[in-house]
Here is the input.
Amino acid sequence: MKVRRFSLIILVVLAALLLSSCSGAAMRGSSWSGLAADDSMAYLADGNLVYGVSLSDGREAWRYPEKADSKKQFFSTPVLTPDGQLLVGSAGSDNGLFSLDPKTGKENGNNWPFVGAKDRWIASPLVVNDTIYAPNGDGSLYALDLKGNLLWSKDLGSALWGQPVSDGKLVYVAALNHIVYALDPQKEDIVWQIKLGGAIPGSPTIGPDGTLYVGTFGSKLEAVSSKGQVLWSADTQGWIWGGPVLDGDSLYFGDLDGYFNNVNATTGKQDWAPVQPDGPIVGSPLALPDYFVVGTESGTVFAIDRQGKTVWDQPLTGKIYSAPVSAGDLILVAPMEADFVLAALDKNGTQVWKFTPQK
Amino acid sequence: MWDTYIVIPLTNLLLWIYEIIGHNFGMAIILFTILIRLVTWPLNAQQMKGAQGMQELQSDKEWQAIQKKYAKDKEKLAQEQMRIYKERGISPFASCLPTLIQFPIIIGLYQAIIRALAATPLSLLNLSRSIYPFLNVANIFPLNSRFLWMDLGRPESIPVFGFALPTLAIIVALTTYIQSKLTMPATSTGGDQSAMMGNMMSIYMPLLLGYFALTFASGLSVYFITSNLLGIVQYGTMGKANWRNLLPGGNKVAKSTKTK
Here is the structure.
């Protein structure tokens, strides 16, 4: 009987450990990288920390917070403001939107951090003039001044994961509930809204004439006029996550079935058949003068020219979900599940340095 | 393997129920739980049979004589108990089995809930690979995670005087306690090993499940509560519930009645 009782205790404890470890794995496995850069530093949001990494040698300049805080998780791409702040939202339980000094990684003062949102920050904020437009997972778009004071907010009713765009007059934000909203900051209200064919986790792209190009989980890229009408809709093989890049008259984007697509921005027709690098493409492509840089879930960085031909490819380990970033002569890529969190390549795809944070 | 055979089917089942009942994830979890209860019905029946066998044993004259004879020799008493269990086909584990069998379902369901709600980019990406072709996820995603006052993808609490009161965790612990007490057989001696095991389960399980409810997504708590309530109703309607165990000293009342 003692053996039986002991077995029972062991079973209960094992079950507890198993479920706890599932939860732990879920937390660790839910991380998502966000990458930005200026002319001297790369800013990487990764797990519980944000890193400032020197572009010259790939060394860590600072980390925020200095000691990892379980309440903080950083998924969104950090954003530099014109007045020299680095904004980054937390996807952890603190729901904080932080303003850091990009040189030191220290928190700025005033009314920062903003903790008025009810959910996690997955989208990056957009800064237009002196106003920050920050979409939150609670479904609200928060308008803040540069000191972190709330100016107004608008509940749009569904989680917002994509960075807004603006034509200088209206602010456009896409929601997971399939809807693109146009908001007038003067009226602090919705001007129009349109429902598309699927959830929109990424950011719309805005053309010079105000047309919005939106990729959806309905496996479509849709063009929406500045008045809120669908102009055309282009079918794709897979769901579209990262927003398209508008380059000349064409749009370039990847999909989750692993295709790199192009369509004409006016007609929505393909100029060439989609090419298939080596895995699903989540992040937006990076447009460079000679080619686009694309990261795949298989962990390879591809340079693809405007005719869809591969110029070079550089296999890295891990999975690349965030969009590659250009910084001077470097191409920065942030893979997940690799033994490093940031790699710098030159324009030929040769690795210059890689950054592994010290524990 | 675990993903293919447990998490992905559970995720799709949940999403399918969600789709057909009009996009209410809380109701989908409740219906899912009813379905699981129906599937595990034979196990529950086995548990009741085991509990009944244990109960009958307490009033058995041979067993009472053995208890009296070996009152001071616990080891010999345990040996005799095992012999009688074997002879009469009683399995004391039968009463614990349905609870233990729930653990893989709980773990799978937890992962399915988190995956289906896709509250983070990575979970959304995982969801996109987990869907069977018959489900039109482009239409149903994002899921409505709101149910009553809860966000089913997050642990639940209600602010009361500045404190976050974990209402669901308390209800989970309470209903688990009630269910385990109702299914405990009346016992003849305080030192009875099966009684000790039953008592242990009725203390550990509510604490354990209450802790899970406190820590994990509240959708899991909805599963626990529904499952417990269904269990209580099932035992009650079949006349197997031992309501006396809920009263303070109820077990002792049963004991003295049986040993007279």
